[in-house]
Amino acid sequence: MEIRHKIWLEQNGKVLFGEGRYKLLKAIEESHSLNSAAKELNMSYRAAWGRLKASEERMGMKLVERSQGKGMHLTDEAKKLIKEFDRLEHKTEKFLKETGRSLSILFTDK
């Protein structure tokens, strides 16, 4: 038995950050390019840019900056956000796995 979940941060009914934006930032971090990140995630540049800008506006902080010349890099705030989201996911997974083991006993004893 498994317990499934999805976590996202929301404010006033609007998504601030979740798995999709997490993957987008990670892809930008690796490729230093929004266009490459969008292609890697099978999304249009426009959709990627829109999600990135929406998160920045809703959170009131910059997540990416243009590097000298071409390219893009994550801000320190974006790196902290990724780190904290990783911690949240890890703690949640651990809790759900332990809870799943406890609950599975109820189903296997019958």
Helix-strand topology string: EEHHHEEH
The main β sheet shows up as: 2 strands, antiparallel
Shape: elongated
How much strand content do the residues show? Answer: 5-15%
Give the mean pLDDT: 92
Top-tier CATH class: Mainly Alpha
Report on this model:
The structure is a single chain. It is built from four helices and four strands, in the order E-E-H-H-H-E-E-H. It has 110 residues and is of the alpha+beta class. The chain has a single domain (8-108), classed as Winged helix-like DNA-binding domain superfamily/Winged helix DNA-binding domain (Arc Repressor Mutant, subunit A, Orthogonal Bundle), CATH 1.10.10. Helix 1 packs across helix 2 (34-40) and helix 2 crosses helix 3. The model has no long low-confidence stretch (mean pLDDT 92).
Task: Give the SSE layout.
Layout: E1 8-11, E2 14-18, H1 19-31, H2 34-40, H3 45-59, E3 64-66, E4 72-74, H4 76-108
State the gist of this model.
The chain is of the alpha+beta class and 110 residues long.
Comma- or semicolon-separated keywords:
alpha+beta; two-stranded antiparallel sheet; 4 helices; 62% helix
